[in-house]
């Protein structure tokens, strides 16, 4: 069974600059709405689980992770172009498809959590995002000689941690009546 990757999804990560630029740009656009919410009463009044980093850490960490995930997608396309083994090609193509799925889930999280203030829906998204990213990392590991894992493992760890934070916020605040406080 042949697995096809649409040309545009193949061409974006082929070029290292667009491979890195697309997730960084998507992340910046996605994160642009967070500042006003983080400065507002709703976010400041949330009970949070232990271990939340200072808010200044988030833009630095996320920008670094977007660069790393973009570079990993470039490594995957480079490996795909060099691969002739059908099972390896299938893993790479599925991994690249999951790359775009996880990018979409990543973008969706911000409007769910900060825009709609739906911490439970954001938790579901975050869980799917972490699982998809971990599976994507596993698929890309062998075909890229482990190189992509160096760039994706920190992302997977951060997503697991972010899911813990989201889960704690949902758990500690799920009985709140007024979401607009």
UniProtKB/TrEMBL annotation:
It is a multi-pass membrane protein. Pfam families: TspO_MBR. One of its GO terms (cellular component) is mitochondrial outer membrane. The chain crosses the membrane at residues 60-80, 92-114, 152-172. It comes from the Eukaryota. One of its GO terms (biological process) is tetrapyrrole metabolic process. Keywords: Membrane, Transmembrane, Transmembrane helix. InterPro entries: TspO/MBR-related_sf (IPR038330), TspO_MBR (IPR004307). It is found in: Membrane. Its main location: membrane. Belongs to the TspO/BZRP family. This is TspO/MBR-like protein. It comes from Athelia psychrophila.
């Amino acid at each position: 069974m042949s697995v096809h990757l649409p040309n545009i999804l193949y061409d974006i990560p082929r070029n290292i600059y667009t491979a890195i630029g697309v997730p960084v740009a998507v992340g910046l656009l996605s994160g642009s709405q967070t500042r006003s919410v983080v400065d507002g009463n709703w976010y400041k009044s949330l009970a949070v689980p232990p271990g939340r980093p200072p808010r200044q850490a988030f833009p630095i960490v996320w920008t670094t992770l977007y660069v790393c995930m973009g570079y990993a997608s470039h490594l995957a396309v480079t490996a795909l172009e060099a691969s002739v083994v059908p099972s390896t090609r299938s893993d790479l193509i599925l991994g690249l498809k999951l790359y775009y799925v996880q990018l979409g889930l990543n973008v969706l999280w911000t409007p769910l959590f900060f825009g709609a203030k739906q911490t439970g829906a954001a938790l579901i998204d975050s869980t799917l995002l972490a699982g998809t990213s971990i599976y994507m990392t596993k698929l890309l590991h062998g075909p890229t000689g482990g190189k992509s894992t160096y760039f994706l493992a920190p992302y997977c760890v951060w997503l697991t941690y972010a899911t813990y934070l989201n889960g704690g916020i949902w758990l500690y605040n799920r009985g709140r009546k007024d979401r607009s406080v």
